[in-house]
Amino acid sequence: MSEPFDADQLEAARVLFAHEVKFMMGAVEIAGLPPADLPEVAFAGRSNVGKSSLINALTGRNALARTSHTPGRTQELIFFDGPDTAELRLVDMPGYGYASAPKTQVASWTKLIHQFLQGRATLARVYVLIDARHGIKDVDQDVLKTLDKSAVSYQVVLTKADQVKRADLEKCISETTAALARHPAAFPEVLVTSSRSGAGMPELRAAMVRLLKERA
Question: What pLDDT digit, counting tens, does each position of 149-205 carry?
């Protein structure tokens, strides 16, 4: 278990992410990825789990990542250059599971996701976003198993926590933590967030800063 973040660590992370984060590029196939020359943190999750909203809240940029009420709008790996004082890239991955697109296209996105997770040497951590209203689903388990097999460190981030009653949220946290104990590559602690209220964003930023220091 990691040590909790103190006020100085949270403030340092806030200051870091106050610096500009910029769109870099999108890639629809593995051959089109940027050079693997910086640590990368990726965000994965079911379609409509709130990935783009979380990235916007994390970086304090309202329109950095495109948000939509239509599941499946993110159709490529989208790379962002991290804060300009840090050597870091953020990666917004295509939503898996349901998408309003032909099955062949969804299959192509799914293949891209799994290829990226299995073969990216600079991938420092994957934050797997889980809707706090629903918990881990079978389609999430497929991605968790891929990460376990590839020995890629990952941590679950519960999203939309503000839309769940406190008792139900505590149950979801407990069940998610218990489920992760069966996954060898999973970070044991669950982060709880709300893009709308900003809850959990300071801790997520601090977790990323701690990760960078550990890899330095």
Answer: 888 899 999 999 999 999 999 999 999 999 999 999 999 999 999 999 999 999 999
Q: CB-based burial of residue 150 (10 Å sphere; 0-12 exposed, 13-18 middle, 19+ buried)? A: middle
Contact 77, 116 (CB under 8 A): yes
149 contacts 114 by C-beta, under 8 angstroms? no
Write down the pTM of the prediction: 0.90
- Written as six digits, the tokens of 100 are 């309003």
Contact status, residue 89 vs residue 40, Cβ threshold 8 Å: yes
Is residue 160 within 8 Å of residue 194, measured between CB atoms? yes
Tell me the CB-side half-sphere exposure of residue 67, using CA atoms within 13 A: 15
Cβ(198)–Cβ(161) under 8 Å? no
The residue assigned the tokens 């309003």 is: 100
> Closest Cα to residue 95, out of 61, 125, 62, 137?
137
Scanning the structure block, which residue is given the tokens 């330095």? 216
- Residue 70: pLDDT above 50? no
